[in-house]
Amino acid sequence: xxxxxxxxxxxxxxxxxxxxxxxxxxxxxxxxGNLPAPSGSGSHSPGALSYQQVIDGAPVAPDSAIxxxxxxxxxxxxxxxxxxxxxxxxxxxxxxxxxxxxxGFDAGLAQMLAKYITGKPNENLVLVTADTRExxxxxxxxxxxxxxxxxxxxxxxxxxxxxxxxxxxxAILVAKGNTDxxxxxxxxxxxxxxxxxxxxxxxxxxxxxxxxxxxxxxxxECEQAVEQGRADAYVLDQALLLGDSVRDPKVKVxxxxxxxxxxxxxxxxxxxxxxxxxxxxxxxxxxxxxxxxLWQATIGTVLSGxxxxxxxxxxxxxx
Length: 319
What we know:
Blueprint: H1 16-29, H2 51-57, H3 71-78, E1 81-85, E2 88-89, E3 93-95, E4 102-103, H4 105-118, E5 123-127, H5 133-138, E6 144-150, E7 160-168, E8 170-175, E9 191-195, H6 199-207, E10 212-216, H7 219-227, E11 233-237, H8 238-247, E12 251-254, E13 261-267, H9 272-287, H10 290-297
Helix pairs in contact: 1-8, 2-10
């Protein structure tokens, strides 16, 4: 199930069509958490850097920050960061079908972290699902997971989390013509799909206890179930569902997020030095403005306003 992609130069994320589609989707569902209001034009803020400029300007760690024998030292010697991630999320990690390159907020953070450790944004992507993330960290296949990975105490028993670095929340995706479902209360007695092992699977037990929940392994399977009428709605993180609505004109995101989902960077539980290192790196890119520059070059290409304030490091239970 591995798919590896060598990351080098990367194109700017947004195109005009994507901008218009996402602005429409966001207007329909409102904004929450880290997502500001939609932009009317979807253009860069004045002075915003391109995606590649952000990656090129990202810092490199001093040698003193990488002790001998640490996981970071092994990554530096290898020259490549092995990252568990995805390649289908329009805002966070999307693979260009022509060039094979990745862009997005998570993709950019992975490339910046790789550069911080090795001096170059050399990342090997290993595709993960909600069912495989912990296993791939535990068996050493990946050094870290950057995949809109919600921090929970249960998951923190299996892997360690740096961050949180972003915050989203569960939202609802329905077929474009659906007018019956606009909020979580409307999911009562409906057929609702979500990804197995996702936090949404448990959230639905609390917020929509009478819904008939069906589980799939991937985002694509859930989206297809809604399109085909096998499910009335799909519940998952708003950030991911917005990406689906950008790519697929047959679906839309409705209502407001009804949970808070803090995203963390998964690292091996047996490498506490890696968690400390990544947390220190997050603090560095937040304080020097690199985090905000990346937001502007990705999510900020289609949303108006200044970059949001990132959540405090260690503020989520399990981080």
